[in-house]
């Protein structure tokens, strides 16, 4: 009999694993993820990219300065994206955000890269449980023009069972250090 964990148990187990990474391990795995990311033709064609500022041992994102990068900020309990500037300050949940905020409509992004704590082969993600990305994704997933939505994480974050419910949004692709899921 397959035992399925609750999302909160999945969150705890996989976050604990991620937090055990040394900086050297995180850096090496992040380089592999980056190499898999830049091989994607949709990435190479994208100009405006929504990225995230890594926390709690999330993969390091190596910025391509030929791209225009935007980062999420929380405003009125919703995520919005702002142009990534050099001057940053720690804000909600100790995440770095631009001091001067120039917002962009999410539909103007070509690619949206999102983090996760765990994922499955059905391209669903488990986040931190606050619902910020889920609310944003539910607003844009059915739009005629929308960015591609890709998850970025480590291969060891895969959970073999289904955990999603009807409110979870399926990603378009997940890129790890070892494999690309489509």
Largest sheet: 8 strands, mixed
Summing up helix and strand content along with how strands pair, one would put the structural category as alpha/beta
Strand order of the largest sheet: 6-3-2-1-7-10-11-12
Give the DSSP E fraction (strand runs of 2 or more residues): 15-25%
Mean pLDDT: 89
Task: Sum up the structure in keywords.
single chain, 182 residues, alpha/beta, Rossmann fold, 8-stranded mixed beta sheet, two-stranded antiparallel sheet, 4 helices
How does this structure look, described?
- This protein has helices at 7-19, 23-38, 41-45, 132-140, and strands at 48-50, 68-75, 78-83, 88-90, 96-98, 103-104, 111-114, 118-119, 125-126, 148-152, 173-175, 180-181.
- It is α/β, with parallel strands linked by helices and 182 residues long.
- It has one domain: 3-Layer(aba) Sandwich (Rossmann fold), CATH 3.40.50.
- Strands 6-3-2-1-7-10-11-12 form an eight-stranded mixed beta sheet. The chain has a two-stranded antiparallel sheet with strand order 4-5. Strands 8-9 form a two-stranded antiparallel ribbon.
Short description:
With about 180 residues, the chain is α/β, with parallel strands linked by helices.
Could you give the topology of this structure?
Elements: H1 7-19, H2 23-38, H3 41-45, E1 48-50, E2 68-75, E3 78-83, E4 88-90, E5 96-98, E6 103-104, E7 111-114, E8 118-119, E9 125-126, H4 132-140, E10 148-152, E11 173-175, E12 180-181
Parallel strand pairs: 1-2, 1-7, 7-10, 10-11
Antiparallel strand pairs: 2-3, 3-6, 4-5, 8-9, 11-12
């Amino acid at each position: 009999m397959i035992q399925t964990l609750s999302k909160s148990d999945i969150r705890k187990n996989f976050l604990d694993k991620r937090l055990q990474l040394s900086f050297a391990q995180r850096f090496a795995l992040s380089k592999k993820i980056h190499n898999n990311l830049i091989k994607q033709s949709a990435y190479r064609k994208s100009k405006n990219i929504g990225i995230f500022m890594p926390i709690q041992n999330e993969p390091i994102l190596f910025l391509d300065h030929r791209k225009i990068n935007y980062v999420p900020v929380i405003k009125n309990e919703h995520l919005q994206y702002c142009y990534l500037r050099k001057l940053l300050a720690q804000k909600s949940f100790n995440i770095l955000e631009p001091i001067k905020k120039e917002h962009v409509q999410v539909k103007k992004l070509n690619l949206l890269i999102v983090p996760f704590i765990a994922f499955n082969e059905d391209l669903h993600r488990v986040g931190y449980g606050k619902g910020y990305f889920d609310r944003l994704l539910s607003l844009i997933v059915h739009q005629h023009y929308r960015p591609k939505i890709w998850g970025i994480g480590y291969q060891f974050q895969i959970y073999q069972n289904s955990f999603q419910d009807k409110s979870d949004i399926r990603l378009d692709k997940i890129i790890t250090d070892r494999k690309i899921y489509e």
